[in-house]
Amino acid sequence: SHGVKAIKALKKYDFFNFTKIINILREFLAADRVIVSGGTPIFDHGHIVRFFYLSISYIFKKEVIFLGIGVKKIKPSFLKKYLNFFLNNSRHITVRDKGSLRNINSLYQGNKIQLTADSAFLVKNYPDTETKKLFERYGIQHTSNNLVVAPRLMSELSKDLYLEEKMVKSSIGVAVQKISEVINNVSHKFDKIYIFSMHYYGIDSDRPLILEIIKNLDKNTLSKTLHIDEELTVNQALNLFSSANVTFGMRLHALL
What we know:
Oligomer: single chain
Strand order of the largest sheet: 1-2-3-4
Helix content: 25-40%
Radius of gyration: 20 Å
Low-confidence stretches: none
Shape: globular
Order of helices and strands: HEHEHEHEHEHEHHEHEH
Number of helices: 10
Strand content: 5-15%
Structural class: alpha/beta
Distance between the termini: 24 Å
């Protein structure tokens, strides 16, 4: 109804699934242009799927637009070369922050790059069937005094994926404890507390640390806390945030 057709993204092990590969190729072949947005489209720790998406965009000679992207420091020289190729052959480039502008300017000296906002700020929530079912499942009401907790955390394991993060081991170790203390201290102000993962699957999933947070909640807090233990669509997450009187999170994800 919004002119958007959703298809399931590839995962690394899907490269052996020829049906999924053909479906992806068919969609890219039919497209007029490819818009790349969000976090760094090319990472220096091997995001093979994103590299595949970008590659087939250029193989099929599609118009490529980078919209509000985040760009971290790219260290390996061969990655700098292919990123430079992608950028040089794109129609338009905007980045979401000054750090990204600095990093991209060190790699690419082509067309003028615009500094805009993160594309997530352009997203609006809207009523849909899946969101309605989610709210019914967990008894979520806009009229309640709700706290929504969505921490985007760093574990020692996943820190390797975020080479520019400033979280040191000591802060990783106390993060769960500190977040639990905050929730316990403010819980008396709310009717319901909802906690969910911004990233549900994968090595950088928030779920394991959220389970640790829940273990540290006191009885009174726990009695009014609901863990939404499932992967949410973007729209479900936005509607969940909109149901809250207060949101509590970490990093840019919380601001979004």
